[in-house]
Design goal:
The complex is a heterodimer of chains A (155) and B (786). With 155 residues, chain A is of the alpha+beta class. Chain A has helices at 23-30, 87-94, 104-117, 123-129, 141-154; strands at residues 2-8, 11-17, 49-52, 55-58, 71-73. In chain A, 33% of the residues lie in helices and 16% in strands. A five-stranded mixed beta sheet of chain A has the order 2-1-5-3-4, sandwiched between helices. Helix content of chain B is 29%, strand content 24%. In chain B, strand 20 (495-499), helix 15 and strand 21 form a beta-alpha-beta unit. The chains are: A alpha+beta (155), B alpha+beta (786).
Chain lengths: 155, 786
């Protein structure tokens, strides 16, 4: 077993874990943060995307022990403390950017990272920027609109 | 409480979303129970192999392993095969045990299960189970399975043919072809697809040692069907001792309808171990074991007279069903396919024959569209081929043969009666949106420059709103196809609606509340929609075949009427008025002519439960249960147009424009319906251009992960141009049709026709899907088109 200390959604966490425990399992099973989802086993679908020190990463591809000392933001940590939605969450709701909702947390986290790098993306840049996330429910049409909505709000 | 707002027809934001965008959804894998064990399945790496023995000694010795079970142990304990829910005349149904004891028949067939304290230990131990396999000859393609000398998948089906089925009038069709001016023949391959809901199949089975009841959390599209079939057929347990809960479900597209081995194994095992057991499929397992879709090879032909009128159509199809008959597999290539071969056209004679065959591949069942995409692809491609053969414009040939607006209800020669339609209306609207002359001019210019630009049309019709029970029963369904709804008014006039429909992304909590709120004349916030729990919801048939709004929504409408009728009786009594003189408007019951004499819905609801002053003989309470069993399917239709360009140097196909004018009857929530159409189109386009399940000759699935099965990404799709016409359905009180599958049904042939249009200057008439760059590039080279 290994000990890790990291910060998750603003809260310091310390845990005794198996070295082979994936970050996504650490979040979902050890910490009970089930908003981060698992959709594949080859790092294609992006449902498990979280922010690690501000960068979008797939939490199924990292061991939890690799995140020692890091700051993790999951979907649960995105809205303000008072519950006010992040503009990206608001965009997905306003523009019907989700149907079953399973890919949504990862999609939202990726889209947040995308806007951080490029606050005014074109439609094509949004589509390319979400290349690491698969949605089977929307055809991406309204996801693009949701990101455009958030970009507008955040500018 | 009273409100003047109505909700039907408005794009109301979804009530489901706040939890789903903040990570507070509750999918099966999110459900936690103390003391949970985890399952891992040992699966055959061979497509066909005899199981000579299974040695689980090493697995059982691993610390943390609680049990290892094999198929033999399960069968010896009395577990029965998984049933088939749709039977055809003389069908052969080979036994499908949850885990086979004798032979594995497809790559991924589960042969043993390990149950352990953690998922990691379960997986470690599964790798320690030694299975002595003796590989057997393999058959992969449906058309090979019917050849003499093919490997036999099940000894009791020695020719691999599960059923032979036909529909339509053969002598009349033969006569139509004999006297035709033009006959066009084509062989079509409608290739196999893998559904890929982003949430894989997932389950948690928990036996209560005190009561003997088992609760099964399962991401199913039809919890009651699962409970009934598992209890009555597979496990032999009392139906009332099994509770199935389907919480938030992460997509289905058909794949979560069926009874799979894993839920049978976990429900069986939790009764032995008396601890909760959880399993969630890895994506690799989902590729191998979720029921696949399509997989037809068809010889088809169309006959025309000298005026361009279609006089006959015929199709002879081999449908690859995979290694076992999945739950509704027999219905998909028969009644959901042959019945739609008249398309949107007046065709005097149609004949269809189908062989359903067994192979050493994953079982095939309903996948978005289910049979209707295969039919629509065939008909719409044949029309384009016929147009090319007769030198007619594909749009005008369609228009010439459309079933006219005044011909509805229209009896086709293939059993079904279309409810309502205006095919020209949708076509004209789509053509206006496209500006066809302008696009044709651009195409002519492009061709001069040597560019391959194509325009493809699909004027589809489809059958959905799966029902009615009596017809389904006569055709072989082993279940009814009605839907249930209970509307329960609480004493404080808040309302809970229990629906047998099962949302898995469709937004029922919003649209169903819109229906109920309008009928009961109250705010949506006062209405809760409950689904997905057999302990709460009356018997229901679930969501598939685009049936939730037309069938499930109508059941809610019916119960709301019953509530109003009873409430009116109570109101009349309280107002000391004649019931016939009481009206209900804006949430108030009042006496005609004296609007100040009224009782609110709240007054009536409270009195219904206080029961201090009710009409003589009227029972207390305010609750109604309805089962809606419509008289027919509903038949959405429309026109889809694709404009594509082929990059000559690479064979890559680029979407330029995509337009859809759909007629879905009345629309409850346009935003939600648009969303369904968007993705329907994406899934259909994806079949045409990218997705394909590929097996090698040994039955190894080569496209077994997201790395090599081409699911569309955001940059593969373009902005879609949608519009609608509205022809209400007379089949249900809401006038709605289904919206979930139209896009998938319509879009595949639109893309195929656009591609062939683009390639027509090279003399290429037909290619089979998917139109991968390699395939298209090779065709261009072969045609000397460089």
């Amino acid at each position: 077993m290994s000990t890790i200390s990291l910060n998750v959604n603003g809260n310091p966490r310390q845990s005794e874990i198996e070295p082979r425990l994936l970050l996504v399992h650490y979040l979902r099973e050890t910490l009970g943060l089930t908003g981060t989802h698992i959709g594949c086993d080859t790092s294609q679908c992006g449902a498990c995307t979280i922010l690690l020190d501000g960068k979008a990463v797939k939490s199924c591809t990292l061991f939890a022990v690799q995140c020692e000392g890091s700051a993790v933001t999951t979907i649960e940590g995105l809205a303000a403390k008072d519950g006010k939605l992040h503009p990206m969450q608001e965009g997905f709701w306003e523009k019907h950017g989700l149907q079953c909702g399973f890919c949504t947390p990862g999609m939202i986290m990726s889209a947040c990272a995308l806007l951080k790098e490029n606050p005014s993306p074109t439609e094509g840049q949004i589509r390319m920027g979400l290349e690491g996330n698969i949605c089977r429910c929307t055809g991406y049409h309204n996801i693009v609109k949701a990101v455009q909505y958030a970009a507008e709000k955040l500018r | 409480m009273a409100t003047s707002d109505t909700f039907f027809g408005k794009s109301i934001k979804r009530r489901e979303d706040p939890k789903l965008i903040t990570g507070k959804g509750n999918y099966v894998d999110d459900v936690k129970m103390p003391g949970t064990l985890y399952a891992s399945f040992v699966r055959s790496p061979h497509a066909h192999a005899k199981i000579n023995g299974i040695d689980s000694t090493a697995a059982k010795a691993l610390k943390g392993v609680v049990a290892v079970y094999t198929g033999k142990e399960m069968i010896d304990s009395g577990v029965k095969p998984i049933p088939v829910g749709w039977l055809l005349p003389n069908i052969k149904v080979p036994a499908h045990y949850p885990m086979p004891a004798d032979r594995a028949r497809y790559m991924g067939d589960p042969v043993a299960v390990v149950i352990a304290e953690t998922p990691y230990i379960a997986k470690d131990a599964a790798e320690l189970v030694q299975v002595d396999y003796e590989p057997l000859p393999v058959v992969v393609q449906g058309i090979d399975a019917v050849k003499k000398g093919a490997a036999v998948v099940h000894d009791d089906v020695p020719d691999n043919v599960s059923f032979r089925w036909s529909l339509g009038n053969k002598p009349e069709t033969d006569a139509a072809f004999a006297s035709a001016k033009t006959v066009v023949k084509q062989r079509f391959v409608n290739h196999r697809l893998i559904p890929n809901a982003i949430e894989t199949r997932s389950m948690l089975a928990s036996a209560n040692p005190g009561t003997g009841e088992v609760t099964l959390w399962l991401n199913t599209q039809n919890p009651h069907v699962h409970r009934l079939l598992m209890a009555a057929f597979v496990l032999g347990m009392p139906e009332h001792k099994l509770r199935v809960i389907s919480p938030d479900v992460g997509g289905g597209f058909g794949s979560k309808i069926f009874i799979y081995p894993e839920e049978c194994v976990l429900t069986w095992a939790t009764r032995l171990l008396l601890r909760p057991i959880k399993w969630s499929a890895e994506r690799r397992e989902a590729f191998l074991t979720d029921a696949h879709g399509r997989d037809h090879v068809t010889e088809a032909a169309i006959a025309l007279d000298g005026d361009g009128k279609i006089t006959g159509l015929r199709a002879s199809t081999v449908a690859n069903l995979g290694a076992y008959l999945s739950l509704f597999a027999p219905a998909v290539p028969t009644y959901l396919y042959g019945t739609m071969l008249s398309g949107a056209y007046k065709i005097p004679a149609v004949h269809c024959e189908v062989q359903g065959v067994l192979t050493n591949t994953t079982p095939v069942d309903a996948y978005r569209g289910a049979g209707r995409p295969e039919a629509c692809y065939l008909v719409e491609r044949l029309i384009d081929l016929a147009a090319a053969a007769t030198g007619r414009d594909p749009v005008e040939l369609r228009r010439l043969n459309f079933i006219p607006k005044d011909a509805f209800p229209y009896q086709t020669p293939v059993a079904v009666m279309y409810d309502s339609g205006n095919y020209t209306g949708a076509l004209d609207k789509a053509l206006a949106m496209l500006d066809l002359p302008k696009v044709r001019a651009e195409q002519a210019k492009a061709r001069k420059e040597g560019r391959l630009l194509g325009i493809g049309f699909s004027t589809y019709v489809e059958a959905c709103g799966l029902a009615p029970s009596q017809v389904a029963g006569a055709l072989g369904a082993q279940a009814g196809l009605y839907e249930s709804a209970t509307v329960r008014v609480h004493p404080t006039a808040k309302v809970t609606v229990f629906t047998g429909s099962q949302a898995h992304g469709q937004g029922h909590e919003t649209t169903f509340a819109q229906i109920a709120a309008d009928e009961l004349q109250m705010p949506m916030e006062d209405i809760e929609i409950v689904h997905g729990d057999t302990a709460l919801v009356p018997f229901g048939m679930g969501s598939y075949g685009s049936r939730s709004a037309p069938v499930g929504g109508s059941a809610i409408y019916m119960s709301a009427q019953k509530i109003k009728e009873k409430a009116k009786k109570i109101a009349a009594h309280l107002l000391e008025a004649n019931e016939a003189d009481v009206t209900y408007e804006k949430g108030k019951f009042s006496v005609k002519g004296s609007p100040d004499r009224f009782k609110t819905f709240g007054d009536v609801a409270l009195m219904a439960y206080l029961a201090h002053n009710l009409p003589k003989g009227l029972e207390p309470g305010l609750e109604a249960l309805s089962f809606f069993d419509p008289g027919n399917f509903v038949f959405p239709f429309g026109t889809h147009i694709a404009v594509i360009e082929i990059l000559r140097d690479t064979g890559e196909v680029k979407l330029v424009r995509y337009l859809a004018v759909d007629d879905l009857g009345k629309v409850i929530n346009p935003m939600i319906v648009d969303g369904m159409v968007h993705v329907g189109i994406a899934q259909g386009v994806s079949q045409a251009l990218w997705e394909a399940a590929v097996y090698d000759e040994n039955g190894q699935l080569l496209t077994g992960s997201m790395m090599n099965y081409a699911l569309p990404h955001a940059h593969d799709m373009i902005n879609l141009e949608l519009s609608r016409t509205e022809t209400p359905s007379p089949v249900n009180p809401l006038g709605v049709k289904g919206a979930g599958e139209t896009g998938t049904i319509a879009s595949t042939p639109a893309i195929a026709n656009a591609l062939m249009d683009a390639l027509s200057p090279l003399g290429i008439k037909h290619l089979d899907m998917p139109f991968s760059p390699g395939r298209v590039w090779e065709a261009i080279q072969a045609a000397g088109g460089k």
